[in-house]
Design a protein that fits this description.
mainly alpha; 80% helix; 170 residues; 8 helices
Length: 170
C-alpha cells in the first residue's frame, strides 16, 4: 500500500514541483533542512521545559500553567513548519520515505508524542495547584512519556537517512 502511495506521488505534479524547486532554487535544500532543524529545536525546547518542570527536574520557581501559556505556542507553531519543510522533502523523494521502515516508527512515535503532549497540557491547565507535591503521578508519567516519545521521534527522523545501513538485504 505504501509503495503504491509512493509511486502515485512520484509521478505527480507535486513531485515535479518539489524536485524543480530543490534543484533550481539556489541553496534551497540546506535552507529547508535548516528550517526543519530549527523548528525541531523550538518544539523540543518548549515541550521539554514544560515536561521537565512537570517532573520537578527543572525551573522550580516557574509557575507551570504560566509556562504552558508562554511555551506551548512554540510547540504548536513548530508543527506546521515541520509538516511543510518535511513534506517538501517527502514529495521530492517519496520512495525514500514510504519504503523506509524507520519512517513508520517515526510516525508512530510522533502520534504518541502529540497525544501525550495534548493530554499533559490539558491536565496542567485544569490543575488547581502548581505545587510539586500536589501534582499527581499521572502528570509525571505523562511528562516522562512526552519526553520519551519526542526524543524517539527525533532519533527516528535522523535514522531515516541511515536506514540503508540498518536494513541491508542478506
Amino acid at each position: 500500500m505504501l509503495d503504491s502511495i509512493a509511486q502515485a506521488i512520484a509521478g505527480s505534479d507535486a513531485n515535479e514541483a518539489a524536485l524543480y524547486l530543490l534543484r533550481n532554487v539556489p541553496g534551497l535544500p540546506p535552507i529547508v533542512q535548516t528550517i526543519h532543524i530549527l523548528a525541531i529545536a523550538a518544539l523540543m525546547a518548549s515541550v521539554a521545559f514544560v515536561a521537565l518542570r512537570s517532573l520537578g527536574l527543572a525551573l522550580p520557581s516557574q509557575d507551570l500553567r504560566e509556562m504552558v501559556r508562554r511555551l506551548m505556542p512554540w510547540t504548536w507553531w513548530a508543527l506546521p513548519v515541520l509538516l511543510l519543510s518535511g513534506g517538501l522533502l517527502v514529495l521530492a523523494r517519496p520512495q525514500r520515505y514510504f519504503s523506509n521502515p524507520v519512517m513508520g516508527w517515526k510516525m508512530l512515535f510522533l502520534l504518541a508524542a502529540l497525544v501525550l503532549s495534548v493530554l499533559m497540557v490539558q491536565r496542567i491547565r485544569r490543575s488547581a495547584s502548581n505545587g510539586f507535591a500536589a501534582r499527581p503521578l499521572r502528570l509525571k508519567l505523562m511528562a516522562a512519556g512526552v519526553l520519551f516519545f519526542w526524543v524517539l521521534t527525533v532519533l527516528a527522523g535522523r535514522w531515516i537517512a541511515y536506514s540503508d545501513y540498518l536494513f541491508v538485504p542478506a
